[in-house]
C-alpha cells in the first residue's frame, strides 16, 4: 500500500489499521482520518500530534491512563496489547527477576499514587536499567512536568508504531 491507497482507506479500515498507534486510543486516528490526504508519514504523524496537543490537560492525562504499568499485571496476565507486549519484551521487561519485579511494582505504585496516571516511557527505545532509573527520577517531578514528559513519550511510541505499520502495510 502506498500513501494514495492509505488516503483512500475507508474510515473503518483506517481506524482498524491505526487504532492503537496511541495505546487504546482509537479515537485519535478516528479524528485525524478526516485530515486526509497525508503526503507522507510525517504528515500523518503531525496530524496525530496536533490532535493530542490540542487536548485539554485532562484529555492528555486520559491518554496517559490508557497505558499499562510496565511489567505490571497486564504483562503477567498476558492481556497487554500486542504492541505493548512486543515493546516491553524488547526492553527486557518480560524477563525480570523477582527482586526487579517487586521494585518495579513498588515504583509504579508510588508513581501512580503521586500523579494519578501510570509511568509512560518509550520502552522500545530503552532497556530495563534505564527504565528503572527514569522511573525513580521522574517520581520526584511535578505533575505538569511529568504529564508533559509522558505525552512526549506517547509521541515517541506513536512514531515507532506508525513507522512499523507503514513499513509492514505500505
Task: Characterize this entry briefly.
With 170 residues, the protein is mainly α.
How would you describe this structure to a colleague?
- The protein is mostly helical.
- It has a domain at 70-149: Oxo-4-hydroxy-4-carboxy-5-ureidoimidazoline decarboxylase (UraD-like), CATH 1.10.3330.10.
- 66% of the residues lie in helices and 0% in strands.
- It contains ten helices and no strands.
Could you tell me the mean pLDDT? 96
Helix tally equals 10
Q: Roughly how many Å is the radius of gyration?
A: 16 Å
- SS elements, strand count: 0
Name the beta content range: under 5%
Topology:
Elements: H1 3-7, H2 11-18, H3 27-32, H4 41-54, H5 57-65, H6 73-77, H7 82-90, H8 98-115, H9 128-138, H10 143-169
Key features of this structure:
mainly alpha, single chain, 10 helices, UraD-like
Amino acid at each position: 500500500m502506498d500513501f494514495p491507497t492509505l488516503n483512500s482507506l475507508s474510515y473503518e479500515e483506517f481506524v482498524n489499521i491505526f487504532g492503537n498507534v496511541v495505546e487504546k486510543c482509537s479515537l485519535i486516528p478516528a479524528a485525524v482520518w478526516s485530515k486526509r490526504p497525508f503526503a507522507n508519514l510525517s504528515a500523518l504523524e503531525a496530524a496525530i500530534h496536533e490532535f493530542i496537543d490540542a487536548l485539554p490537560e485532562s484529555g492528555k492525562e486520559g491518554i496517559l491512563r490508557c497505558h499499562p504499568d510496565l511489567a505490571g499485571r497486564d504483562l503477567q496476565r498476558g492481556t497487554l496489547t500486542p504492541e505493548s507486549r512486543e515493546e516491553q519484551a524488547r526492553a527486557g521487561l518480560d524477563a525480570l527477576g523477582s527482586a526487579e519485579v517487586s521494585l518495579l511494582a513498588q515504583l509504579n505504585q508510588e508513581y501512580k499514587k503521586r500523579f494519578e496516571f501510570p509511568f509512560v516511557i518509550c520502552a522500545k527505545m530503552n532497556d530495563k536499567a534505564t527504565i528503572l532509573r527514569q522511573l525513580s527520577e521522574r517520581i520526584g517531578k511535578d505533575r505538569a512536568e511529568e504529564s508533559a514528559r509522558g505525552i512526549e513519550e506517547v509521541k515517541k511510541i506513536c512514531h515507532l508504531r506508525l513507522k512499523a505499520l507503514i513499513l509492514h502495510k505500505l
